[in-house]
Every structure is written in C-alpha cells, then in structure tokens.
Amino acid sequence: MESNAVDAAMLAGSVGANDFSMISLFLRADLVVKAVIVLLVFASVWCWAIIFEKFMAMRRLNKRANDFEGAFWSGGSLDDLYERIGIQPSDPMSAVFVAAMREWRRNPQNSADATVSIVTLSERIDRVMQITLTREMERIEKNLTFLATTGSTAPFVGLFGTVWGIMNSFQSIAQSHNTSLAVVAPGIAEALFATALGLLAAIPAVVAYNKVSKDLDRYASRLDTFAGEFAAILSREMDGRN
Q1: Which terminal residue of the chain has fewer beta carbons within 10 Å of its beta carbon, N or C?
Q2: Alpha-carbon torsion (174, 178, 184, 186), positive or negative
Q3: By C-alpha distance, which of 140, 137, 142 is closest to 223?
C-alpha cells in the first residue's frame, strides 16, 4: 500500500514536470527568472506598440507631405497657402514652410541698406528652417531609442535568465543526487525559455529600428530638399525686390 502511494506521488510530480507549456514554464521558474520573463514580455509588447505607431506615422507623414507639395507647386500664391495652413501646421514640411514665411513677413521691405538686409534675412530664414526641421525630426524620432536599446540588450537579459536558471538546475541536481534527464530537463527548459523571449523581443526591434531609421533618413532628406528649394525661391524674390 505504501509503495503504491509513493509511486502515485512520483507519477503526479512527473506529469507536472513534463508540462512544457509557456505558462507552466513561467510558473515553475525561479523568482529571478520570472522577473526576467516579465521584463522581456513587457519590452516586446512596448516595442510592437512603437513599431505600429511609427509605421502608421510614417505613412501619415508621407501622405501629408505629398498633399502639401501638391499645393505648394500648384502655382498658387504662397501667401494664400500660408494663410490657409495658419499657425497650426499638420506636418513637418508645412511647419518648415510656415516658419520660413513667418520670418519672411517680419522683414521690413524698405531698409536703409537693402543688401545687408537681404543677406541677413536669407540667413535668418535658413536658420529658422533648419531649427524647425531639427525640432520636428526629434519629435518624430521619439521612442525610437527604445527599439535600439531593446534590440541590443534583450538577448543578454534573456541569457542572464538562462544562466540563472541553469545554476538552479545544477543546485537541484546536487541536492537530489540524481543526474537523470527527467530531473534536469524542466529546469533547463525554464532557463532556455528566457533566452527565447530575449530573441523574440530583440529580433523585431532590430528589424523595425533599421527600417524606421531608413525611412526617417529618407524623410529628413526630403524635408531638407524642400527647405533648400524654398530658400532658393525666397532668394529670387529678394533679388526681385532689390
């Protein structure tokens, strides 16, 4: 009777130990490994939220830039376009345009030294557009650093959880004096689960960071090109006034 009870208890423990579902691996894991798993899951979820937000934002920004460029190069009055956009530009390209037009309108048309006034105005307009461009790009790039940080550190965080879990497995072996695979496998699986989560968080973060960074570089180049073209237009207008 006693032997049957012992066999039943061992069978129950074996069944629990052989459950390798993600929930079971998490519940059986050490407290430190659990903390690593929770941290990696949170980082992965936050990364996917940033990825989705950045992809949608880039699509929206490119569409608005296309609409603005269509209105800008349509041949209409720049003053009318400025009045239509108002003081609340909806995208970085229109923000650069509004900043330059605002500086342009502040300059008095009649000046004692017209040459000095034109040079100073041109420098101010260029400076204002570059400042606005930099500020807008910093706003777009917000939270992008988290993707880079997760992509570079998540594998090492997962590896830390794995090393810690394997150390606990070896301690269990030493305490039980049993080196069978049935004793080692559950602890090793729990430890490797942390490494898998680290890679699961890092790989999408790295891929998305590279993709978004390339798109942002292309968009920044587009803004810089527009700023240069608009500066040339205003420079010709200044020459006409002179």
Answers
A1: N
A2: negative
A3: 137
Amino acid at 95: A
Q: What is the DSSP letter of 29?
A: S
Per-residue tens of pLDDT for the chain, all 242 residues: 434 433 433 433 444 455 556 566 666 667 877 888 889 999 999 999 999 999 999 999 999 999 999 988 888 888 888 888 877 888 899 999 999 988 888 875 544 455 546 668 888 888 999 999 999 999 998 889 999 999 999 999 988 888 887 877 777 666 766 666 666 666 677 778 888 889 999 999 999 999 999 999 999 999 999 999 998 888 887 766 55
CA dihedral 40, 42, 47, 53 (to 10 degrees): 170
Phi, psi dihedrals of residue 111, rounded to the nearest 5°: -140, 150
**Nearest C-alpha neighbor of 126 from the set 221, 234, 240, 220:** 234
Residue 95, CA distances (Å) to 99, 124, 175, 186, 212 in order: 6, 16, 68, 58, 21
Helices 92-106 and 31-72 pack at an angle, to 10 degrees, of 50
Q: DSSP secondary structure string, 89-146?
A: -SSHHHHHHHHHHHHHHHS-S--SSHHHHHHHHHHHHHHHHHHHHHHHHHHHTTTHHH
Neighbours of 213 (CB within 10 A): 15
The terminus-to-terminus CA distance of the chain in angstroms comes to 111
CA 26 to CA 42: how far, in whole Å? 14
